[in-house]
Design brief:
Low-confidence stretches: none
Mean pLDDT: 80
CATH class: Mainly Alpha
Helix content: over 70%
Number of strands: 0
Radius of gyration: 15 Å
Order of helices and strands: HHHHHH
């Protein structure tokens, strides 16, 4: 059973995560980011990280355009996009 303090800490962490990984950080003009947002409009970084096998932060960097996506990330998105057609 969780106490009141633990619930407050958990809630604060959820809020902090949503601020760090909010849509303002992830929305970008990069083509890769737009493709990912089109495929996964909700929890984009989490979905990409699960498929590619990288951290959520790295996936968010790929989507935002702050870091060039790895070949594995490009291949995963491309393969998934082609399989949906």
């Amino acid at each position: 059973m969780q106490g009141t303090l633990q619930r407050r800490v958990d809630r604060a962490r959820q809020i902090e995560r949503s601020i760090l990984q909010g849509t303002a950080t992830i929305c970008s003009a990069s083509l890769f980011g737009k493709a990912c947002k089109g495929m996964w409009p909700v929890k984009t970084a989490e979905e990409l990280a699960a498929i590619v096998g990288c951290s959520v932060r790295t996936a968010a960097y790929y989507i935002s355009g702050e870091q060039e996506p790895s070949a594995r990330a490009i291949h995963a998105v491309n393969a998934l996009w082609l399989s949906e057609k």
